[in-house]
Every structure is written in C-alpha cells, then in structure tokens.
Amino acid sequence: MSTASQLKHQVDFDLLIFRRNPAASFFTVILPIIFLVIFTSIFGNETLDNGATVATLYVPGILTLAIVSATAVNLAMSMTARRERGILKRVRGTPLPPRIFILSQALTGIVISTMMTVLITVIGRIFYGVAFNLSTLPTLIISLALGAGAFSAIGLALTTIIPSEDAAPAVTNAIMLPLYFVSGVFIPDSQVPGWVSTVGNIFPVAHLNQALQGSFDPFVDGTPWPTDHWLVLALWGGFSAVIAIRYFRWTPRR
Amino acid sequence: MSALPPSKLAIDAADLTKSYGDIEVVKGIDLQVRTGEIVAFLGPNGAGKTTTIEILEGFRERDSGQVQVLGQDPALAPLAWRERVGIVLQESEPTPELTALESLKMQAAYYDRPRDPLEILELVGLSDSRDQRTRKLSGGQKRRLDLGMALVGDPELVFLDEPTTGFDPSARRESWVMIEALRELGKTVLLTTHYMDEAEHLADRILVIAAGVIVANGTAAELAEQVHATSRIVWRYDPDGLQPPNQLDWSVPDESDLAVISGDDVVPKLHTLVGWAVDNDVALPELEVTRPTLEDVYLQLTNSPSEATPA
After folding, report:
1. Could you read off the pLDDT of B189-221 as tens digits, one per residue?
2. pTM (two decimals)
3. At what angle do helices A137-159 and A204-213 cross, to 10 degrees?
4. pLDDT value, residue A247
5. Distance set, CA B220 to CA A4, A8, B31, B42, B198 (Å)
6. Which of B13, B16, B11, B40 is nearest to B26 (CA)?
7. Among the listed ranges A15-24, B51-60, B178-187, which one has the minimum average pLDDT value?
8. Residues 69-108 of A with CB under 8 A from B
9. Chain A: nearest CA to B27, how far in angstroms?
10. Exposure of A87 by Cβ count < 10 A (0-12 exposed, 13-18 middle, 19+ buried)?
C-alpha cells in the first residue's frame, strides 16, 4: 500500500476507535457543547452595543477546550493505554512504518478538531447569534491546523512522563485544568489579575485561545494574522515533537 | 545440527547474552530452528525465555552474540522483514473498541500480501464472535485473536510467547489445536512455555532453558534419556514392624512415612523385597514402582544448572 492509503486506513480506524470510546467522545464532543450552554445560561446572552452577542466571546474559549481535548488530552490517555496494554508493541511488530501510525494520531486529532469547530460554530450561529466573519476563515483554518498539530505533539510528549494507564487522567488534568483557568478559556483575560495572564501566556493554551479569538472578533476588518500566537504554538509543538521523537515508548513500562 | 546449510535454518543464534544492570539473564545461548520445525523453549519463569525470544523478534538488543532470523539480524532488519514474521506477545490486549473482525482488518492492511481476515477468524475459531467487541471476548478468545493477528500477514515464522499461560485445561486444549494447525500451514514456530506437557504435545524439539542457559535440547524422549533417570520403589513404612533387610539399601526420607529404594535397575531389589515380605508375612501397604515422568525430568533439568554453571 502507498503511504497515503496506509495513512487513510489508519485514520479511519483511529476515528472509529475514538467514536466508540465513551469517555473520549464525552469529554471532546459533549462537554464543550454543555459548557457553551451553561456559560450562556449563567452569564446571559444579551446583544452588545456593537451588535455582537455575548456568546461570541465564549466560542473561541470553548473551541480551545475542544481542540486541546481532541488532541493533547485524548492522545495522552489513549496512547498511554495502548502502550501499557501491549497494543503499540504489537503494531511495532508489523511492517507498518511507525511514523504512519504516529502521523495518523495527529491527523485523527485534526479531523476531530475540525468537526468540533464546525459543530460549535454552527450551534453558536443558530442558537446564540454568534457572528462569524467569512474574511477570517483563513485565520481560523491556520489556527486550527497549527493548534491541533501542536497539541497532538504535546499529547505524545506527555505520554513519555506518564507511568501508567491509571496515572494518565490525573497527570493530564493536573496540567490542563489550571491552564484553562489562566489562559482565558473559562474566564476572560480582562477579568483576571495581570500576573495570572502573564503566567498563562507562557503556555500554549492561551495562544491557541487568542489566535482563535481573532476569527470571531465582530470588529475585525479583513483577515487577521496573529503571527505571534502562531509562533508560540509552533515553538511548543516543535519542542514537544522533539521530546516525543526522543523519548516515546512503544513497549509497556510495567 | 549446526552443520545444516544456513538456508534451512529459520533461526540461527550463537552465544547470545543479555544483562539488565548487573543481572545476566541470558548467558550464552545457542539456538537453531529449522524451516518448518516447531520448537518449544521450555523453562520456569525468569529463566530468560522472553528476553531471548524478544531478541529474536527484534524488540530487544542483545549484549553480544550472533543472530540470524530468516537470514537477517533482527536488530538491523528493515520493515520488509516483518512481512515474514508473526508475533504473539506474552502480554498484549486487542483494541477494546474494535470487533474481532475489525481488529484483523486493521492489522491485515499493514501487510503487502495479507490473508483474508474471515479465513483467519475461521482458522482461530472466532467466526461466531466476529462482530463482538474484543473487550467482551473471554481470555482464551482474546488469545486466539492474538494468534489470528499474528497470522493475518501470512508469515513464514511465528513466535508464540507463552500462548496458553493462565488458561483452564479446556482452553489450553483448544489453543493446542490452533497451534497444531500451524504445522499443516507449513509455518516455522518457536514457542515458549513453562508447561512440560505443552512442549511435549506441540513441539518437534524441546529446548530446556534454566537461569539463562540451555540445559537440554532434543525430543521429549531424548530429554528423558539425557537425564540420569532413576526408578523408585516406595511403600508405607511401619517403624514398629519387622525391618526389611539392609542389602536392599532402603531408607526413609526425613519427615516422611514412606520407605524408598531407588536405583537404575530396581527389578532385582523388587524381587528381593517382595520375597522377604511373603516369607515373613509382612504387608507392603501402598507399594509402588515409579519411573520418572517428563515433569520430573524437567524439574531435575531446571534445578541443576546452578551447580553446573556457577555464576
């Protein structure tokens, strides 16, 4: 088989595995939608002076949550589980090139992230009057691809420090949950002390959030290029890829 | 045996060693498996079976020694070599979200010339469970799916690392039937086990490994000969009764109430013993003459290497 058809085959199966994993599907697909509903219920969804609804401000944060969950969180848990159960070792015993298998994991995350972006945007548009400016579509596509790619690498890098399947949710949540709070995902940057934002800005979650915000900004004119945020995402992604390539394990730690 | 031309050997390993830290687990193993042969690698837990087989599979690097598996060094072999090798790992689970058939389809696409997954399901007796999620399969069914996944690429050589450990007797018998089917398919098989009866039942040849060295190599019958096999006469000893004649060389082992006579040829002694008992009207309760079983041979083989090769 050609590399492309091998990759397609593996992505199809990895999507099927994702769909049939209740925990992964819930946290990645259902939870972001629940958050969107809860935020608009608690904080209201009045129309601002400029004609945008408040929900417009939540959508980028919800998308950040969905993308990080579809990539880093999912991969950290599923790849650790597959490693500890000997599934990765069995794959390594076949002629499938390891890079195809790894690439498939990242591509699967990008596909799920894209579907979630469409889903959240459409729900926001229909139910909460969320504006979406077509001129920002290139910004959204680049932010989505770069963000999903970087967070996939981060997920693979995380598996190198997670000792067991049981430890995977604890380690992943211990890292990601605080980051959501300091990165403007749940609470807008304007409502937290400056030092909190400063800490948040060291890490990639804040930059994915801010890169996405540009795409839903009702005041934007033309196509925004949040290159500084993209650069930070690329740096984190590259650094994580180096860690993953150097330390990724295919065999159980037990 | 090593005089065979290299092309007839599926596996040819010489003087393999492997240590983890200060502990040497493989201490100079020589191992040859002919094409089409089924060889069992028999030994207790911790003897070095899995380390050795994983060196041959290319999962572990040896510290020293030469290895050729299907004409390639597994540590350096290209991915194409894996087309020809099927592996059942000692511990590996199927992907729980997939069905048995989907698992085989996913695996089949990794190979250039795979066999039909439906045919493989039939072969490993899982046709009735083809659409069941693998998480719902029993331990024995999962293990058979493992075997199916190792066979779907149509390999020449199959490694089976403890294929039936932890099975109940009927599941073991079922697995044995599957493994015997590999012979009809013309596969070369190297399997590890710590069950003597499994090795005897499945293998053309048995290599007994203990503490990192091979202590015996041959068919089950040859192994029995290699061991200095002594027979025993045993009966329940009555300390208050008439004592048997000393020329019989009998003894009562500590903390035992059985008298024992052992030796290479116990028939004359049995004659003397029974004659004495009849003459003196002495009963010999629970009288038994035992030959060593293969299990005894195995235990004797795997207990001795600590004396044979001081560390």
Report:
1. 999 998 888 999 999 999 999 899 998 899 988
2. 0.86
3. 160
4. 95
5. 50, 49, 17, 11, 11
6. B16
7. B178-187
8. 82, 85-87, 89-97
9. 24
10. buried
Q: Which residues of A touch B133 (CB under 8 A)?
A: 20
CB-based contacts of A11: which residues, under 8 Å, 6+ apart? A104, A107, A108, A111
Banded pLDDT at B248 (limits 50, 70, 90):
confident
Return the residue of A nearest to B146 by Cα. Answer: A90
- For residue A222, the SS3 value is coil
Q: Are B11 and B56 in contact (CB under 8 A)?
A: yes
Assigned token pair, B97:
């979200």
CB nearest B93 (choices: A16, A87, A97): A87
* Sheet hosting strand B205-210, strand order edge to edge: B85-88, B157-161, B188-193, B38-42, B205-210, B213-218
